[in-house]
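Technical appendix A lists one of the benchmark inputs used to test multi-chain prediction within the project. The record comprises two sequence entries:
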Amino acid sequence: RKEVEQDPGPFNVPEGATVAFNCTYSNSASQSFFWYRQDCRKEPKLLMSVYSSGNEDGRFTAQLNRASQYISLLIRDSKLSDSATYLCVVKYDTGKLIFGQGTTLQVKP
Amino acid sequence: DAGVIQSPRHEVTEMGQEVTLRCKPISGHDYLFWYRQTMMRGLELLIYFNNNVPIDDSGMPEDRFSAKMPNASFSTLKIQPSEPRDSAVYFCASSSTRGEEGTEAFFGQGTRLTVV
């Protein structure tokens, strides 16, 4: 079983739609959580950290459920520019960073 | 700061040759990570260092792969001998534990390796 699992998609949605991505992790020693975004042929970049109480950044909302070892990302009012691969990331207390395989989002006009 | 700097950006080599990938982390960062990305396997952690010391190399696929960090500003990933299945994009990333907890990892632009 992979340490961090995501549905690879692709998710094809129209502009303006709301889309949600889920991620599960297997190691309960996981300390911090992040969502990264990766554009085609580019390096991954931080989208947002995920806090225990849940957090929002504009159209993006991240949630964490430690009991179920589950992380989610919600994107509201999707834009064409949101088309990318979204990577779920788990950080252990040792500093180790593990990435999920990523979920591909394609927003269509 | 210029960010994480990797070289070369592209490398094409023949099977059996030695390949050396280089990385300069962001100044002051105490963690350095090497990842390999392929379509099939996604972004795999190969090895990571803390304060120049290798902490976990369990992701290194086999003995043909080795990594060093001789000082805080330089790391190498070496493949010897290279094989076609090593073709991938290799990313280096660095992060800092100083300051706010959970600070992000910054990635270099990657080295696209093709072994023919």
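The interface with chain B takes residues 31-32, 34, 42-46, 49, 87, 91, 94-102 of chain A (CB under 8 Å). Residues 62 and 68 of chain A are 15 Å apart (CA to CA). Comparable benchmark entries are summarised in Table A2.
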